[in-house]
Amino acid sequence: MNSDFYQKLVDLYAAGELTDELQEMMDAQAYNDPALAADMYSLRDTVELLRAEPQPEFTEESYQRILMKVYARGGEIQTQSPDPAHLQYHLPIQG
């Protein structure tokens, strides 16, 4: 197999999503190809570091900030849930 094939599998190798057989083939190819080995191991280290970090918190405030930015840029978004009550303007009732 050519090196392009192995280069295409680097991201799957880094994520640990290859079968044992393909992973062994990648390791064998990396032994003979230093550039491939550098890509494989540096990307795997990066993936492991990212997985070790705590997950970001996506709050209602974050959602509303992103939604307002999209609206400000002219985007039209149709949500399935109703708008939260804190986005409604309360007008005084005049009798």
Outline the structure in words.
By secondary structure, the chain is mainly α. The chain contains five helices and no strands.
Q: How are the SSEs placed, and which strands pair?
A:
Layout: H1 3-8, H2 10-15, H3 20-32, H4 34-52, H5 60-72
Short key terms for the protein model shown above:
95 residues; mainly alpha; 60% helix; rod-shaped
In short:
60% of the residues lie in helices and 0% in strands. It starts with a helix and ends in a 23-residue tail after the last helix. The protein has 95 residues and is mainly α.
Sheet/helix structural class: mainly alpha
User: What's the N-to-C terminus distance?
Assistant: 82 Å
- Count of helix runs: 5
Proportion of β residues? under 5%
Instruction: Please state the average pLDDT score.
Output: 85
Q: Count all strands and give the number.
A: 0
- Main sheet makeup: none
The level of helicity is 55-70%
The string of secondary-structure elements, in order, is: HHHHH
The parts where pLDDT drops under 50 for at least 5 residues are: none
Rounded to an integer, what's the Rg over CA atoms?
Answer: 24 Å
Shape descriptor reads rod-shaped
